[in-house]
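Comment thread on ticket #2218

A.B. wrote:
> Attaching the input chain for the structure job we discussed in standup.
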Amino acid sequence: MVKKISIRLIVSFLAFVLLAYVIMQYGFADPHKAGLITQKLKKPDFHYAPWIYVLYVHIVTACLAVAIGPFQLFIRPKRKGVRRHRMLGYAYVLSITASGLISIYLSIFATGGWMAGLGFFVLDVLWVLSTWVAVRKAVNKQIQAHREWMLRSYALTLAAVTFRVWLLALTPLFGGPMEPPYRLSAWMCWIGNLIFIEVLIRLSRKKAVSKSLTA
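C.D. wrote:
> Ran it. Output below, let me know if you need it in another format.
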């Protein structure tokens, strides 16, 4: 129980940190000074529009999914809260669908070239796919499977956090241009998250089986 609570707190804290960072960087500070945008502006053949507008739509929809996730995953709805759970779920799914499809366009212009772009593209496909698999499980009344797929979906949602963590950790190791750590982070940010959540899901299944046998 203590481990579950600590994991929930860590995930919620990471979500809050990301939201605070995005709001400060793109809402109050000069967005042109953001690391991602400054790298783009250095390229003479880069077209600022419509890329910047697509980026902002992606940021808004992805942040909405990040904000909704902890309420959906860590707070079990009571009878009175089922309607709210469904409404938030609709918003979560629509946000991810929109953000994931938009991100496919952004992956074409990813810093780090085609290798980073491919990493983000695979992430986008898995992100949308896992979310809609979770929806299908809910429609079929497979509640436990629905919860597990939503955990996978939110693990991919939090790739927005772990990408920045990996980039921050890897950049000093390369000690040169930004592209090499960017390429590696584009893959590690979601592969690591999926491995982590899959281990947790399988451990949870084993505990459930052992409890049923001893009951």
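A.B. wrote:
> Thanks. Noting for the ticket: The mean pLDDT is 85.
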